[in-house]
């Protein structure tokens, strides 16, 4: 069967079907195109939301770190400022305590200008230190300017020690190793080649007394624990005794902490 070369015209029914098919294909393509566009827009919105959320988290984390660093810096600055103020306050307190110590030393120097008072004072220092050492033979070291005075006092001291102790304590003056000239005064006793010693210099006693009386001095000078004392929450400490002479019934079992049996050097620095 051979097809004729001449095209036969389409009937209206065929044209209607063709147009119907064309409309259907166009409608289907439009639907698919709109579906593709909606899916693409949906995926775009999802990706955009994820990116926005990720960037928001990064920005929030960055600003949280900045805020944390700022707070840490503020705390460090506040702590440094408080520390500097406290150090300044403590330095001023220490300066006032040094003034008190200097004033006491000046007062002691003035009192030692009286020879009778100085003689009695050195006698009590020697008795106290000798009872602390509590040995048969004791050497005493003083300043060069005080050697004559101490040498004159020693017989009285030895006689008093005979009355106070069950055995004889002989105190001898060591003129070969005097105390430094910048020392205010006092005595330094040692026995058994420096194994037992007693530092009874004025500066040492003053530092010891100031250390023991530090709470009372702070309450007086700086109003420490004022609110506690006013409310009755705490009671002030009783000041420790600072008597120079031990009682007559003094024994070796109650030696003072002035005695040091492990001293490396015989003489004070």
Automatic annotation (TrEMBL):
Residues 231-269 are annotated as: Disordered. Residues 241-260 have a biased composition (Polar residues). One of its GO terms (molecular function) is proton-transporting ATPase activity, rotational mechanism. GO terms for cellular component: proton-transporting two-sector ATPase complex, catalytic domain. Keywords: Ion transport, Transport. InterPro entries: ATPase_E_C (IPR038495), ATPase_V1_Esu (IPR002842). It comes from the Eukaryota. Gene3D superfamilies: 6.10.250.1620, ATP synthase, E subunit, C-terminal. PANTHER family: ATPASE H+-TRANSPORTING V1 SUBUNIT E1A-RELATED (PTHR45715). Belongs to the V-ATPase E subunit family. This is V-type proton ATPase subunit E. It comes from Argulus foliaceus.
């Amino acid at each position: 069967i051979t097809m004729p070369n001449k095209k036969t015209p389409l009937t209206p029914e065929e044209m209607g079907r063709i147009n119907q098919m064309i409309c259907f294909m166009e409608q289907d393509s439009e639907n698919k195109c709109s579906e593709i566009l909606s899916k693409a827009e949906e995926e775009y919105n999802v990706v955009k939301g994820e990116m926005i959320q990720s960037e928001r988290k990064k920005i929030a984390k960055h600003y949280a770190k900045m805020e944390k660093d700022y707070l840490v810096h503020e705390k460090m600055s506040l702590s440094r400022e408080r520390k500097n103020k406290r150090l300044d306050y403590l330095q001023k307190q220490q300066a006032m305590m040094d003034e008190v110590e200097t004033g006491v030393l000046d007062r002691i120097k003035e009192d030692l200008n009286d020879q009778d008072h100085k003689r009695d004072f050195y006698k009590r220092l020697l008795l106290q230190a000798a009872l602390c050492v509590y040995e048969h033979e004791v050497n005493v070291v003083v300043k060069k300017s005080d050697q004559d005075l101490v040498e004159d006092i020693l017989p009285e001291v030895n006689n008093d020690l005979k009355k106070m102790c069950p055995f004889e304590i002989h105190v001898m003056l060591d003129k070969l190793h005097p105390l430094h000239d910048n020392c205010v005064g006092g005595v330094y006793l040692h026995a058994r080649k420096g194994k037992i010693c007693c530092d009874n210099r004025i500066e040492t006693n003053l530092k010891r007394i100031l250390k023991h009386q530090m709470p009372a001095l702070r309450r007086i000078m700086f109003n420490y624990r004022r609110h506690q004392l006013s409310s009755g929450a705490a009671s002030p400490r009783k000041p420790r005794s600072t008597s120079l002479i031990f009682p007559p019934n003094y024994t070796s079992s109650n030696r003072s902490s002035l005695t040091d049996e492990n001293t490396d050097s015989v003489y004070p620095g």
